[in-house]
Amino acid sequence: xxxxxxxxxxxxxxxxxxxxxxxxxxxxxxxxxxxxxxxxxxxxxxxxxxxxxxxxxxxxxxxxxxxxxxxxxxxxxxxxxxxxxxxxxxxxxxxxxxxxxxxxxxxxxxxxxxxxxxxxxxxxxxxxxxxxxxxxxxxxxxxxxxxxxxxxxxxxxxxxxxxxxxxxxxxxxxxxxxxxxxxxxxxxxxxxxxxxxxxxxxxxxxxxxxxxxxxxxxxxxxxxxxxxxxxxxxxxxxxxxxxxxxxxxxxxxxxxxxxxxx
Length: 262
Hints:
The chain is an alpha+beta fold and 262 residues long. The protein has 2 domains: 2-56; 73-260, Jelly Rolls. The protein has helices spanning 2-23, 39-56, and strands at residues 73-78, 89-92, 99-102, 106-110, 121-124, 132-139, 147-156, 159-166, 170-177, 180-187, 197-204, 207-213, 220-226, 233-241, 250-260. It is globular, with a radius of gyration of 26 Å.
């Protein structure tokens, strides 16, 4: 009995897809084809509707993800609207006189001297996916070679990764293992103050790849580090001055996005 049922179902599907081939999508089939004696097409039509209903609630892929490629899923995004930080964030070494929300669209950090430690480091407190990409968009980036941006993931005080960029256009990716540093360096060229800068840190297994972009679509790799047991949580970002008394600059952070990678 089960064998006959499988054969009947297969026959119904074959007739249904033949009808789709000859007449177009099920929407284009006349109503008479799915009523009365046309039970086979009705069964096929029901199967079609179930398939379509199953895809309607699927997760939305990240912007720029192609339909033919494995999809990335956005698990967290903050566009820094409003007047308070979201509960996922913790602000470390806060200097209340040097950060604020502006234009209901940006988080403003005013650079400070590293002689006082890195002020206003914003750290994400939630768990990261097993494989992920962290994307940071900055408008009005630092203008001087004495000023930098950093996107970091640490296991502890001696083991971690730092993606950094300076106003002179130098960019680097540092691996800290047991307190020793391994550095990869590149160059973006100077970026005008009215142009955005995107930084991205991707994890796939034990490979961590840093890259940068001017439009969020075309990316240039800085390099890749292998980290066997980073198990990094709580990524953070900040901006600072290298010297004690360089000109201050207001750096505007547009958004941070965390994506789950397949």
